[in-house]
DNA sequence: TTCGCAAGTCAATAGCTGTTGATTTAAATT
DNA sequence: AATTTAAATCAACAGCTATTGACTTGCGAA
């Protein structure tokens, strides 16, 4: 019987995972440029050198963080164009403990580090391939790309405003459900011209 | 007669202005963290030390750049809630040489550097005081704050998508005027629930 | 002309960053 | 038990950053 109370040591896959998890949390709160490898290593209780060793470098680590989180993708879940507005509105509601909340985290990580030459390039590819592509396809019809951009713009704008600019009164309606309903209406408007 | 072809030297207000202009252009293209004082000094053809001398430091320089650009403010121009959608749609059109284009630059500068502890704090204050405040007041009515946030979110989202994520097909409709009309419709939707 | 003060220059500082090499330690294999 | 192999540690590196102080230059006033 292997004890599960003792701390596992000399386990490369465990430390790799610990680094990845710590990096995720750090990149969620700070930008690529403002996260140091020493911060991540400290959180993961791991030597700094191991990061470059296991991941090849900061850039590769970031790539792994975002591409791990990319799937299950935000826009792979909704099945039809009709359920899109309600899905996106629910996505923004961000009830604590909600399953969807962790889907939103990839968004925040992307927004935080989008300005930063190295991280930006990675993020841009991800947005085009894994987000805008599927979303455009799902919407379809006339000007599907434009409408996909509109939806994504709203989502990103709310993310920037709420998480980065720290504007908290976006949910400041008495009834949070009402707020969600209004945003659902906005998404519907974007889809129907 | 003072020659205007000779380069003015030993002119403190001119070099201050040169630094400010160079800083504006740099912060427009790169984030606070990725712009070095040496870059700015190089563009302004000025010694690096003069920046800290004249502005007190990088942070103060950035504050001066954004607060100079803040007025004339984006949202001080439209007079009534009714003309807001058309105004915002025109703001996004970004026709080269347009007067409104330079109004949009403040937005880009803010979005670029929003994630960055020092610049972020400055920007957050600006958003609350100079943008969300006036806009909420202009909109008025029920849930004016929520609607102001919606409009700002759309504006920021489009800015992020277009300028930072470099998604260029936001204007890829055959007729750019048609694209503008659609966004105007989206803004109207945000105002009317 | 001379003096003084402001403008501009130069060099050096301390503090950070990611990355790498050599070294030690622990686990698994023979 | 001895040996090999991988994991973790440690220390140091070179490159960058903003900022500061001392120094030199030049213009304007006396």
Give an overview of the whole structure.
Chains A, B: Residues 36-55 bind DNA. Chains A, B: Keywords: DNA-binding. Chains A, B: One of its GO terms (molecular function) is transcription cis-regulatory region binding. 2 copies of one chain form a homodimer. Chain A has helices at residues 12-29, 37-44, 49-55, 58-70, 84-93, 99-113, 117-139, 144-164, 176-191. With 193 residues, chain A is mainly α. The first copy, chain A, folds into 2 domains: 12-66, Orthogonal Bundle (Arc Repressor Mutant, subunit A); 71-191, no CATH class. The N and C termini of chain A lie far apart (63 Å). Chains A and B meet through α6, α7, α8 and α9 of A and α6, α7, α8 and α9 of B. The first copy, chain A, binds a DNA duplex (30 and 30 nucleotides) through α3.
Quaternary assembly: homodimer
Uncertain stretches of 5 or more adjacent residues of chain A? 1-8
Structural class of chain A: mainly alpha
**Overall tally of domains of chain A:** 2
The helix fraction of chain A, in percent, is 55-70%
What is the number of beta strands of chain A? 0
Q: What global shape of chain A is seen?
A: globular
Radius of gyration from the alpha-carbon trace of chain A, in angstroms: 19 Å
Tell me the β content of chain A.
under 5%
Determine the N-to-C terminus distance of chain A: 63 Å
SSE string of chain A, helices as H and strands as E: HHHHHHHHH
**Average pLDDT across residues of chain A?**
88
Number of H/I helices of chain A: 9
- Largest sheet, strands/sense/barrel of chain A: none
Largest interface: A-B, 47 and 47 residues
């Amino acid at each position: 019987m292997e004890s599960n109370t003792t701390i596992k040591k000399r386990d490369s896959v465990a430390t790799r995972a610990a680094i990845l998890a710590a990096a995720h949390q750090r990149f969620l709160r700070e930008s690529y440029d403002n996260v140091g490898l020493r911060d991540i290593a400290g959180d993961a209780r791991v030597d700094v050198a191991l990061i470059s060793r296991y991941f090849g470098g900061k850039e590769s680590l970031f790539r792994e963080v975002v591409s791990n989180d990319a799937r299950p993708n935000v826009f792979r879940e909704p099945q039809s164009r009709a359920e899109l507005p309600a899905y996106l509105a629910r996505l923004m509601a961000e009830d604590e403990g909600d399953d969807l909340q962790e889907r939103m985290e990839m968004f925040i990580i992307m927004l935080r580090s989008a300005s930063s030459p190295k991280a930006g390039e990675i993020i841009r590819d991800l947005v085009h391939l894994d987000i805008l592509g599927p979303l455009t396809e799902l919407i379809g019809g006339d000007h599907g790309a434009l409408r996909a951009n509109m939806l994504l713009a709203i989502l990103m704008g709310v993310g920037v405003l709420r998480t980065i600019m720290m504007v908290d009164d976006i949910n400041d309606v008495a009834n949070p459900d009402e707020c969600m309903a209004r945003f659902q209406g906005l998404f519907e408007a974007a889809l129907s011209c």
